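During the no-cost extension, the postdoctoral fellow (Dr. R.K.) reprocessed legacy sequence entries with the updated structure-token encoder. One reprocessed record is reproduced below for audit purposes.
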Amino acid sequence: MRYLLLIYSEENRGTPDPAEAEKVMNEYWAYSEAIEKAGVGKGGDALQESTTATTVRVRDAQRVVTDGPFAETREVLGGYYLIDVPDLDAAIEWAERCPGSKYGSVEVRPIMEFGE
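Re-encoded structure tokens follow.
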């Protein structure tokens, strides 16, 4: 079954400490490698800051485009992993191992499967 691991955290304002940034990125590289070695990784990416987002809505047949994310919140979606594992328990185990779970939260969301 496929799951998205959605990584949420507070956006870093200002310049991060280079040593801390390197430590965190090394944790993510190791995690990405573990997912690939386990054969469960199907994709994933980090996202640019939410200030680069554009939100599109259609209301009364009119397109409304606004800058920024849909919701004002302290935590924003910063990246994701797409994994294919046997069940929710396995997905939760991978979410727990994700470095993002230490710095924010990881939402585990099953992919809706439509008939093939």
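The two ends are 14 Å apart (CA to CA). The longest strand covers residues 75-84. The remaining legacy entries will be reprocessed before the final report is submitted.
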